[in-house]
Every structure is written in C-alpha cells, then in structure tokens.
Amino acid sequence: GTQEGGSKTTTTEKTETTETTEDTAETNDATSSDLYDLAKYKSTKDKKDWTIAVVTKDNTANWFKRMEVGVNEFGEETGINVIQKGPANADAASQVQVIDDMINQGVDALCVVPIDPGAIEASLKNAMEKGIVVITHEASNQVNTLFDTEAFTAKDFGAALMDSLAKDMGEAGKYAMMVAYTTSTTHMEYANAEYEHQKEAYPNMELVNDGAIPTCESEESIDTAYERAKEVLKANPDIKGFTGVASTDCPGIAKAVEELGLDVKVVGVGTPNEFKPYVESGTISTVKLWDPKDSGYVMCKVASMILAGEEVGEGTDLGLDGYNSVAMVQGDNRCLIGQADITLTKENINDYDF
Amino acid sequence: MGNILAVKGIKKSFGGVHALKGVDLTIKEGETHCLAGENGCGKSTIIKVISGFYQPDEGTIEINEKGYPVMTPSEAINAGVQVIYQDFSIFPNLTVIENLAFNQILANKKKLVNKKEFRRIAEEAVKKINFDVDLDALVETLPVADKQLIAISRALLDNAKLIIMDEPTTALTKKEVKRLFEIITDLKKNGVTILFVSHKLDEVFEISDSITILRNGENVITCPTSEMTEEKFTYYMTGRHFDTNQNKADMEKNIGETIMSVKGLSAPGFENVNFELHKGEILGVTGQLGSGRTELSLALFGLLKPTAGTITMEGKEVKIPNVSAAEKLGIALVPEDRLTEGLFLPQSIIKNITVSKMDELTSKAGILSNKKVVEESAKWVKDIGVATKNHEFPVQTLSGGNQQKVVLGRWLATNPKVLILNGPTVGVDIGAKYDIHSLLRKLASEGMAIIIVSDDIAEVIATCDRAIVMQGGRVTGQLDGSELSNDSLTSATN
Amino acid sequence: MMAKIKKIDANILRLIMILIVFLIIACVTQPTNFMKADNFRSMAKQMTEYGLMALGVGVCMISGGIDLSCVYIANLSGITAGLMMQSMSTTSSGSGYILLSVLVAILVGAACGIFNGFLISYLRIPAMLATLGSYQLFMGISIVISNGSTVSGIPEGYTMWGTTLLAGIPFAFVVFLICIILLSLIMSKTRFGQKVYLVGTNAKAAKFAGIKNNSVLIRSYMISGILSAIAGLLSLARINSAKADFGSSYTMQTILIVVLGGVNPDGGFGSIPGIAIAVVILQLLSSYLNMFPNISNYYRDLIWGVALIAVLILNFVTNKRKQARLAKAS
Amino acid sequence: MKKLKNLTKQSEFYVFIIIVVLSIIIQARSGLFFANNNIVDTVRSMIVPSIYALCALLSFVSTGPDVSFPLIAALSTYLALITTNALGMGESMVIVFVFAIVYGSIMGALNGIIIVKYKFPSLIVTLGTSSIFSGILLGAFEAERMDLPAGLQRMGKASLLSVKNAETGLGSTLPMTFLILVALYVITYLVLNYTMVGRGVYAVGGDEVSAERAGFNVKKIRFGVFTANGAIAAIGGVCYAVMSMRYLPTEYAGGEMIVIAAIVLGGTRMAGGVGTLKGCILGTLLLTMVSNSLILIGISVYWQKVFIGAIIIIGTAVSALQSYGASRVKSKVKEAA
Ligand SMILES: Nc1ncnc2c1ncn2[C@@H]1O[C@H](COP(=O)(O)OP(=O)(O)OP(=O)(O)O)[C@@H](O)[C@H]1O
Ligand SMILES: Nc1ncnc2c1ncn2[C@@H]1O[C@H](COP(=O)(O)OP(=O)(O)OP(=O)(O)O)[C@@H](O)[C@H]1O
Ligand SMILES: [Mg+2]
Ligand SMILES: [Mg+2]
What are the structural domains, with CATH classification, of chain C? Predict the structure, then answer.
C-alpha cells in the first residue's frame, strides 16, 4: 500500500530483499549486518503520522497498566500516535501473533516486552528488515533489536537483589528462590544472576537443595506461591532468606512466612501497592523494582529518537530521572541501561502509588 | 363395571415410521386384558403413550373416564397406572431399594428421602412376589432375571389400579412365571386391572380375560379370550394361516457335511456347549433372556473369549480371537440389538452395508473406490429388497425390518459359510419377517449353514431343522426336525 | 449429483459464506492494512501451527475422543529436533543431520500419539483424561530435557524454511495445505478414514462389524501426534526456537476450531476442509481485531464463544429440518 | 465380612489405599507429613479445589463434564465485588457472597438452558460459555487485581484454628473458608442423599429414560444442577479471593482439568450416575497431596509435571480398568432350575 511505501522510503532496497527471501541464506546475512544501522530507520514521514506500538506480556496486569500510563504520557507530550497491545493469552505464541499483526499494520516502531525473547527473534528480525524500529525491554539477550532498554541489566538486577537479601539476612544462612515458571526466561536470568553473585560475594550464604535453581515455581499465582513457599519452609525450617522475582511470588512467600511464624527475610520484585502491607509489617524487607511507567516512556522515546534520526548511545538523555544519561553495553545486543532501580523499604514505600 | 382405560384413535410416528396408525384400546375395570401382536406391531409404543412417556400425534386418552389432553409420566402414575417396561427401565447405578421405591415416592410427591420408608416399600415389594434379593446391591451387578423381577415387583404398588406388563416373562424361569401368574390372580381379586403384553400363546390363554391384537400399528380384533382359539390367534397376529411344516417341506433339503463343530465350549455366561452344524442346515438356539444364548453367539464370533472347549471349522480346530478372524473363517453374526450393535444409525445405508467389505473394495493403492462401494451397496439393497429412495440416507430413516435387512446384507456380502443370527426378526414387521425367513431358507438350500438364536418359538419352528434349548448357561434339550413343535419347545424352554 | 454436492457441503458452504462476509467487512473497514499480501503471508504462517493441531484434534474427535495434548507433543517434538540440531550442528556438515532431526521429531510425535491411543483404547481411559494426563507428562519431559529454557541456536540451514516462500506462499503454509489435502483424502477416500467415522459413530457396532477399534484409535491419535510434530517443527523454523510451554493457549483454541468446523463433538461426523476453513476464519478474526488499538484482544474469546454456540445451534436447527425432510421423503 | 467385600469394590477404597501408601512414603522421606501443621496446610490447600470438585461431581453424575466453573468463579466474584463497591456495601461479607451466588447462578443457568434445550454435549457448551465469560471479564470489564472490601478482608485475616508444631515451631492456620467448605459439603450431602431431587441427579445420570418414566423431571434436574454449579463456583471464587486476600482475575482459568482428574480418581464415572462426595474429597486430597509434597520429598522442580502427569494416568487407568472389569462381570452361570 501507499502508506507502507511512504514510511519506508529509506529502506526500499531492504523491503525488496524480504520479498525474495527464498534467494539464499547469504543474502540474508549480508543485509542483516546492516540491520543495526540506525540511519536507515530515519523516517521521512511527518512526526504526526508515526505510529509506535508497544506490545506487552499481558495487558491486564497492573504492571503493564502502569506502563500504559507512561506510554500514553509520551503520546500526549509528543503528539505521536502510540498504541499498547497485549496478547489474548499470556503465552509466547499469542504474543508472536500480536507482533506479526503489528508489523503488517505498518507501524513505524515496535516496542516489545517479550514473554520469551527466543520466540520472537524471527518476527523482530522481519520487522527490522521492513524498516521498523525495534526496541525491547526486559530482554538483555534479545538479538534482533536496535536497543534493549533496561532500568539496569539482569545481571546487575540479580546482583542487587542478592545484595539486598544478603544485607537483610546478615550475609549468612540458607535461602531459597522462587520464579513463576522454570520456563520464564527473565526470571531464570535474575535467579541465576542472584546465585552467581551470592557464590562470589557471600560465601557464608547457601541456596537450599544444593544450589538447584529455582527452588520452586509460583505458576504466576499468589496462592501457589504461598503453598510452595510453605512447603519449602517446612522442608527447610532453618531458612533465613527467600527471594521471588515474579510479582506474584513475594506476597505469597510473605504470607507463608507470617503464618508459619518464622524470621525469614523476603526480598523480591513487585509493585509498591501490592507489597505495602507486607513491607509495613516487616516480612518483606526490601522490594526491588523499576517503574514500568518510565520503561514504557523510555522505549517510546528511544524509538522516536531513531525515527527522527537522532543519535542514541552512551550518555544519551532520555528525559526522565534515572535515564538522564544512559550507559550503553554491547552484549547480545545494544543495551541502554539507566540507573532507574528503585529500592523500596518500610521507609520510602509510601512515596510510590501504583 | 366401567372402563378403567379408553384410548381412541392413537397415531404415533417416529420420523418416517408409522408405529401406530389409529389404535383403540378399551380395558374394563378388574379384567386381565392381553395385548398381543408380532414383534414391532406397536405394543410397546401404545403402552408408552398411555404412560405419558410419548406424546401421541393424534388421539385421546381416558383413565377412569377422565380425559388427559397431555399425559405425563407422573400424572399416569398418580392415576394409578404402573408399567413394567419391556426394557425393565431400571437404574443400574442405584441400589435395589431405590429402584423399587422411587416410583411410589415420586407419585406421592414426597420431596425428602426417608431411608426407613424406602426400605419398607422395597421389602413389601419383593415380599409380594417372594423375590429373594439383596436389597442393598447395585442393580447393575444383578443377573437379568433379577432385573426383570425388580421391574415387576416395583409395579405392584398399593395404589396401582392398572398394571401394564410389557412382556414380563422374557427372562423368567417356569417357576418364576408361575409365581407371577399367581400374583396376577391375587391382584385381580383385589380389583386391580392388568394389561398383559405377550405374544406367547400359552401365557395369553392361561391368564387373560380378553384379548386385543394389533398388527402393523392397527387394531385387528378385540374379544373375550373364550371366543379365541390358538389358530385364530396366530392368524390375527400374522395375517396369514401358518402351516409351518409346509414351509419347510417346500424347500429342498440339502444338508451336507459338518462345517462347524463345537465341543465342551465354555465362556462367561454358558458352560459345556456341544453341537454340530452342517452345510445347508438351520440350527435354532433358543432359551430365555439371560440363558447364555447371546454369549454363545458372541463366542462363536470372536467377541467373547472361551474359557474351555474347542471350535472346529471344516475339520480344523480354530481359535477365534476377534471379529476379523471370524470373518476370515467365513463366520458372520447379525447381532441381537441392531440399534446399538448392528447399525451406524446416523450414517448412510451405503456405509452400513459395505463396512465389512471395505477391504475388498479398496484398490492396491489403498483408495476406497467410491464407484465400487455404491455398486456393491446397490446390489444388496436390490437383492434383499431394502425399501428406500436414496442409498445416501441415514439408515435411521428406515423401518425396523429394512434396518435388519441392511445388517443382513452387510454380512451376506462377505459370503459367509456360517451365518449366525441373533433375534433376526425382533421389531420387524410381518412382511419383512416373511422375506427374511424365506431368504434364510433359500440361503440354506444353497448350502449355507445358519444358526438362528431366537426366543420366538414360532420363528424357530418355521425356519429351523434342529434346535438346541439353553437354560441357565447350559444346553438342556435338543430337538430334531420331527420333534420341533410348539408344545415341545415351550415346555423345553420353561 | 447436484444434490450430493449440496448435501456434503452444506456446512462448508455455510463456513465459506461466513468467511466471505467477514472478508467484505474487513475490506471495507480496513482496506489498506488488512488487505495486503504481507498480512496474508504472516497470517498464513501463524495459522499453520494451530491449524495442523486442529486437524489432528479433528481426527480424534471424529473418532469419538479428543486430544488435549497436541500442543505439548508439538513442543516436545520441536525441542527434540532443536536439541539434536544444536548438538550436531557443530560436528556435522551438510544437511543430513537436519533431516535426521526432523525425522526423529516426527517419530517422537508419532510415539506420543501412539501412547495416547494406547491409553484410550487398551486401558480404556476416557480420552479427555488420558490426554490431560499425557499433556502434563509430555510437557514435563520437555521441561526436563530442555531445562525449562528456550532451545535456540537452530542452524540457518533449518530456520531458512521459516522464511522461504514458494511462489509467494510461505513454505509452512504449503506444508499445511499438503497436510489438509492428504488428510482429506485419508479421511474420505481410504478404508482407514471410513473406519474412523464408523468407530466414532458407534464403537460397539464397529466392533460387531469387524473393525479393530483399538487399532483405529491408536492410528487416529498417531496421526494427531504426527501433525502436532509437524506443527512443532514449523514453529521451530518460524521462531528459531522451541520451548516447553510455547502456545499453551492453542489447546482450547483447537477444540473450538474443530467444533466450529462442523465436527460433531460426539464423534462420527465432520470434515477436514471444514476444519481448515474454520482455522482461516479464526486467524482472520484475530488479526483483524489486532487492527483496532482500542479493542482488547480478550474480546476475541467473547466473539469466539458466541460463534461456537451460535454455530452449534444453527447446525442443530438445520439438521432437524433436514431430518424432517428425509423422513417425509422416505 | 460382606462390608469388607463391598468396600473392596469401591474405587474410593483404592484411592484411600494409594493415599495411605503415599503419605507413609512422604512421611518416611521427609518426616513432615503427619505433623499437625502439615495436615492443616493440606486441608487449607484443598478448600477451593474441593469446592470446585462439587461442580465437577454434580455435572458428571447428572450429565457430563462442566469446564466453565473456574471462569464463572472469576466473573461472578468480580461482578460481586464491583457491585458491592458501587453500592458501598463492602462492610458485609455476606452481601458479597449473596451477589456472587446470584451472578454465578445466572451464568450456570445459561449453561443449563443450552445443554437441556439442545442436548449438546456439556463439554463443548461449557467450553464455549467459558470463552464468553473470559471475554466479558478480561475484554469488556478489563478486570484487574483488586483489593477486597473490608468485610472480606476481615474474613481473610480471621482464622478458624491455629496450630503450632511443637518440634519445628512452625505454625499453620485454617482459614474461615473451611467452614464454607464444610457447609457446602454437608448441604450437598443432605441434598444428594436425603431429597428426591438429589436422588434424581443420580437417577438421571444412571438412565435418563428410566428417570423420566419414573416421574423425575429430567430437564429440571439437569437445569438445576448447572444452575447450582454456577452458585457453587461463585462461592469457590469468593473463597479463593478471600484466601489470597485480593481478587486476582487471571488466576482462576485453567483449574478445571485437575479438578476433573481428581474426581475421576475418586471414582466418579465419566459416563454418569456414579460418584460420591467421599470420592471427591479423596481424589482432591490425593492430587493436592501429590502436588504439595513434591518439594517435601525433594523432587526437582523440573520433574514435577512428569510426576503429576504420571499420577493422573496411572490413577485413571486403574479406575478405568476396574470399572470396565465391573461392567464385564456377567451374571454367574446359574444352576439349571
Ligand atoms: N423411538 C423410536 N424411534 C423410531 N422407531 C421406533 C421407536 N420406537 C418404536 N419404533 C418403531 O415402531 C414400531 C413399533 O415398535 P414397538 O416397540 O411398539 O413394537 P412392539 O410391538 O413392542 O414389538 P416387540 O414385540 O418387539 O416388543 C417398530 O417398527 C419400531 O421399529
Ligand atoms: N438391565 C437391563 N435393562 C434393559 N435391558 C436389558 C437389561 N439386561 C439385558 N437387557 C436386554 O437384554 C438383552 C440381552 O441381555 P443379556 O446379554 O444379559 O442376556 P441374553 O444375552 O439375552 O440372554 P442369553 O444369555 O440367553 O443370551 C440386552 O441386549 C438388552 O437388550
Ligand atoms: Mg415391545
Ligand atoms: Mg438375548
């Protein structure tokens, strides 16, 4: 269609290569090396005609509702057309469908929070080949993305979680880990990072079950988190710390700890409002998080800067606190890392409302 | 005395089958009225209309001179009508007590369960017929005869004014039948009216005061029993004068060498059965419901695993582990219950006929030739005279007799050496019944060996050269051609 | 002849009509975004995977059962192939090892299907429960062999099939079409297909007619397993990875598709082309809904549920009329 | 003696044996199973599944599978919460339950109408309505996690019983919802066993035609069962919210299959007519015990699904083969009279 042509005048050769993908593998390789050339993504369209699509894991979750606030804020501020879409089911296959549909609708930029980065590589590559700006979040190992924006890296985040836990439990004793599913990629990354960091920095601490990661799964359910936590605590009553990286984990763990009447420090990831009661009662000692509103805003911001042909890289100011001078790390991808981690404790949790 | 029941002009059809074409039935209070007719003439259907289970297409029902524009099962029960259904109508998953007590409790519109009352009703019910059964047993674990006795005792309620018995003796031994008749006499003394459905001559004459005979969904005659003779009875039922011997004499006797011989065969349901079957011979196997005849036919067809004994086909001892093995040996079975065992009701006539021949109609490449399938089915539809307009129609649109012909055609298509038929004419109208009997005799005269499993004594007499009688899982009698008569068979089976 | 076509295709005609009406609506409301080759290409790829599984579920449902495990058979097969390719790509050259991995994956799918069939036929476990149990089992095995993580690092020599176009049509969709055609032939033109219908109509009568029910059931579930394995392989190529819980929402979706496609949930009736058209309708619908930023994707469930029940009722009413007509005719 | 023989005929008996054996194994491996706190924990975990098990039992016994109860639970709880919030009646927990029951019954009645009127398979109908309810909940209402009104919060915090393990010092509390479970089971038990409607549920499932002839109103009974299922599901839904201390819209879906597996393990016959509350409890206990003890006995997280799948398959195979065997028990060959 005309719209498509208009939006991608700079990348016409590329669009042609995709049309003839059957050629050979080498052609693909040749083009894909250019895929990361930001200049090619500069849009000739008027800013008002850009569409930036944010694809989340699950639009019903509070976390992503909060993200939508940031996304909409960005839209209102800049007048750029932004949409946030989630899959009909929180599973990777459905997310791939949404991404593919967005690509076909000719959006100019795609900002994705992947359920499973591995599952969407091919779709994102396809998007980039079509000249669509691709930005990801919570996917430090995503290959087919121009920038992955993070409040910080999974490794740092895991380490920070471990630091908090270690501090709270006095750097010694047994601890356990919960993730949503063993198949949840980012959760497993955090969990692994925590463990690595503990082995390096806190030799007196010990992960239960001889370091099996994770100790248990919450299956994205607070009630299951509670049940499993109780089981773990019963099997290991000498546990001193517990971490949970899904937002469902810590409330469940904390409830179990309170009910069992144990002195276990709970540290994990989640949203302030949900954790407030347990933080106030002292069961959850530290909550680590970043503000999804900012992440949403930042993804859109980076996308719009690329569309506008502006430079993005080490030290770029993305216009929000914590992202005023991002660091760029080159790993599996180019990762823009802010200093936007939030550490919530009893003292400051009331400053946040989401 | 007045009429306890008067139904007039009842019409009822199922899809295309006109089961009742305007039936009248009037029963006087206190009498024992017999409703007779061949299989499939509509006896059970008229009963279900009276009991409110079916809504008639046309016609009126009066009980005790009160009209019921729309009859429902509970209204009928409240009006004092109790039915012993032919299929027993029991709850296999529940205990004997509940099976016995439900009707009365529901009729009394009780909402709550009082276990003591349940037990009392049940005890009373079984006491009436001296029926010895574990009241707490689940009905599905009981033998067939007990199920029938449950159905009978359940109907003998205190408030019952009209008890309808639809072939209540099919699974009973002679002793039990005798007991049932005593009960009926007692009930009669107490002013209860009985509608007794049967096509067994001796039973009808022994118990009834008057008789109504149906044929093909129509009234033929109603008269006092005293005015009826056996000969007339048979004639009214079948519409023709029966000369059984003539039928058999007509055909060319052509009994050849032994094709199948069964020695000491036992399986769950029967024990130590021995017989020989010859080419061109029709062997009858008769006995009551639950006597083991069905199981015997299943064992010969690979559907029931024998626990002892041997089967020899054409001189070679054979094992029949499954149906296709039976098929390879040239054994075919037309099963007892054509609706659940014989037919794929919603599928086309073509599919139903050609199912056993699919292998032969398939090309080397594995493709089923549509043309051959249609031709094959058309051939059999024509040969055995299935009345239908379109072979693509689902088989459920056919009448009972034509449905049975479809099953028969399916197995004749495999050109079997031994053809076993279990209840070949149950629910089949007279015309079709006659056709089927002639066809069987023709097949036998061409050398096919046939086993007919049937409790229809007239059928056994009309078609079989020899018969074995089973009771309680054992062969209790053997009757050869000359000995085959109504009396001899009737006394042997009871 | 005319009457015959009419009779066989009544349901399919109805589905095609729905499809056309839908396309017209889409054309009018979203002319630029929806109606373009790229969109159709990506829809074609997406529908292939659950479409193949729906075909398998369809066969099982026609045989009188159901298969809830196909998604996890697909994942297990995909993971098996992925792990084999991963480990052999460093040591092997050429594409022989890819072919071997594909074959092994299909065998895994077939084995899973046979396992289901065995549970259902010989052990007489109701299909719903048997495949419920086996889905946990297959998923569990996938988690164990993949450690729960994404299996990636699939060699280019394999993943290129995910982007290959044949005459402008995605390779995966061509595979889907071939499977539809083959399965349609199997179900309508072979002995086996006829037996599946008959067993599904009345298993007892089938036994009395000499059909080996157990073998028919095992083969039906094996077909479902193989189709699922192909789906798993195609998704491995499309997304360059495989994972134990990929596509978990497809299970219910496939059942809805199959019923919408005209398969009788009690068994015995239904056609493969009907299922295929239902797959297309679902895909169009969900892609279409994605065109509207303000319509939550969860509305799809609503529309889908309403459609399912409406179609059931519609079929009920038309069947009743048809029977009345037949009764009159006979 | 006869009692014992009868006992061995019931599948409940075999489930009970499996439970005993498993609990001994768990006790031996972890030393924790029979601790008072573990027992209370297990009971707590069983509360919501056992409530759902009632829905599954009633529908299987009378008609066929019902898979819509998790979404009826989710949607009716949500609607009850927003109505009470809107009316400002959050102080009373009873009102929330009443609203939920009303909403749940309406949804159940919808299932009932379609199933009774058209005689469609209940599996497909409830699958369809599930999909509709999910669309309404997450699409139309965009339901999200919610805090509970004050009344329910109080209920969630209150506890019926607290135990403390003298040895380990670990405590456990039994929530108030346990009372609801007990009440539901008592009511269901009384209705099923001491009312004609309850016996009708079994009669209809045993033989529909016989039931109609005996004078049961088959349609009303089936309709009633599905309506009641809606109400029970709604109660389960609110209980779940109370026990998690908040309303979690996405945590409901997907629970149906395990519940169905549990009741079939407990001896409920998929073909209808057979199933007991005892079996429901035992089946649910077995699956809860298994899934709540895998960590205790040290099975790796990665192997848990394999174990659960295997238990379902083995358990259902045993009960399927046993009931097949029972149906093959032919009348014994009688001595010729
Ligand atoms: N539900 C039904 N659907 C279709 N046809 C039926 C139905 N019930 C009965 N028929 C047909 O109606 C006719 C009369 O059946 P009915 O059962 O009343 O016969 P019957 O006289 O009781 O025979 P039998 O002696 O075998 O019991 C038969 O042709 C039968 O096939
Ligand atoms: N409980 C029952 N309720 C209704 N009908 C029954 C029942 N039991 C048996 N029947 C009818 O009787 C038929 C035969 O039952 P069953 O196999 O128990 O005895 P049978 O085979 O007729 O007797 P035999 O053993 O002499 O062959 C069944 O196909 C069914 O139609
Ligand atoms: Mg009859
Ligand atoms: Mg019989």
Answer: 2-12+37-285 (1.10.3470)
Using DSSP's 3-state secondary structure scheme, residue B459 falls into helix
Among residues B431, B477, B432, B435, the alpha carbon closest in space to that of B457 is found at: B477
Same-domain pairing of B215 and B264? no
Residue range(s) defining the domain that contains residue B458: 248-493
Residue B52: CATH number of its domain: 3.40.50.300
- Closest CA–CA distance from residue C203 to any residue of chain D (Å): 15
In a domain, B425, yes or no: yes
Distance B337 CA to ligand 4 centre (A): 9
Interchain proximity D296–A223, CB inside 8 Å: no
Nearest ligand to the C-alpha of residue B427? 1
**Which residue of D lies nearest to B114 if distances are taken between CA atoms?**
D194
Which domains does chain D carry?
2-336 (1.10.3470)
DSSP string, A155-217: HHHHHHHHHHHHHHTTT-EEEEEEES-TT-HHHHHHHHHHHHHHHHH-TTEEEHHHH-S-SEE
**Residues of D at the B interface (Cβ-Cβ below 8 Å)?**
193-199, 202-203, 205-207, 209-216, 269, 272-274, 326-337
Provide the chain A residues 115-154 that lie in CB contact (below 8 A) with chain C: 116-123, 126
Chains that touch D (3 or more CB pairs under 8 A): A, B, C
pLDDT (tens, 9 = 90+) of chain B, 494 residues, equals: 588 999 999 999 876 678 899 999 999 998 999 998 877 788 889 999 999 989 999 999 999 888 998 888 888 888 889 899 888 889 999 999 999 999 888 888 889 999 999 999 999 988 888 888 999 999 988 888 888 889 988 888 777 889 999 888 877 777 788 888 988 898 888 889 999 998 777 788 888 999 999 988 899 999 999 888 888 887 888 776 655 444 554 555 677 889 999 999 999 889 999 999 999 999 999 888 788 888 999 999 999 999 999 999 998 999 999 998 999 999 999 998 888 888 998 899 999 999 988 888 888 878 888 888 899 899 988 888 888 878 888 888 787 788 888 999 999 999 999 999 998 887 676 677 888 888 899 999 999 999 999 887 778 888 888 899 998 888 988 888 777 776 676 666 65
Question: Cβ–Cβ of D301/A90 closer than 8 Å?
Answer: no
Write out the H or E segment, with its range, that includes residue B39. none
Question: Which residues in chain C have their CB less than 8 angstroms from residue A20's CB?
Answer: 165
**Cβ–ligand 2 contact at B455 (below 6 Å):** no
* Residue B243 included in any domain: no
Is B111 part of any domain? yes
Judge if the beta carbon of residue B19 lies within 6 A of ligand 1: yes
Last residue within a domain, chosen from B188, B205, B238: B238
Q: Which residues of C touch A25 (CB under 8 A)?
A: 156-157, 160
Residues B350 and B316 in one domain: yes
ipTM, two decimals, is: 0.85
For ligand 2, is residue B473 a contact (CB within 6 Å)?
no
| Last-in-domain residue among B212, B238, B264 | B238
Closest ligand, as measured to the CA of B291: 2
Question: Does the distance separating the beta carbons of C201 and B345 come in below 8 Å?
Answer: yes
Report pLDDT digits (tens) over D282-298: 999 999 998 888 888 88
Q: How many CA atoms lie within 13 A of A279 on its CB side?
A: 22
Residue A12 confidence (pLDDT) above 50: no
CB nearest A212 (choices: D30, D168, D300): D300
- Give the predicted TM-score (pTM) of the model: 0.87
Mean pLDDT for the stretch of residues D186-213: 94
Contacts within 8 Å (CB) and 24+ apart, B463-466 = B463/B247, B463/B248, B463/B282, B463/B284, B463/B437, B464/B282, B464/B283, B464/B284, B465/B248, B465/B253, B465/B255, B465/B281, B465/B282, B465/B283, B466/B281, B466/B282, B466/B283, B466/B284
Residue whose structure tokens are 């095995």: C141
In chain D, residues 277-336 whose CB comes closer than 8 Å to chain A: 292-293, 295-296, 298, 300-302, 304
B177 shares a domain with B108 = yes
Same domain, B484 and B364: yes
Dig out the tokens for D131 from the structure.
């999909």
CB contact under 8 A, A261 and D293: no
Please check whether residues B160 and B28 belong to one and the same domain.
yes
Question: B399 and B356 in one domain?
Answer: yes
How many domains, in total, are found in chain B? 2
B219 phi/psi in degrees, rounded to 5: -70, 140
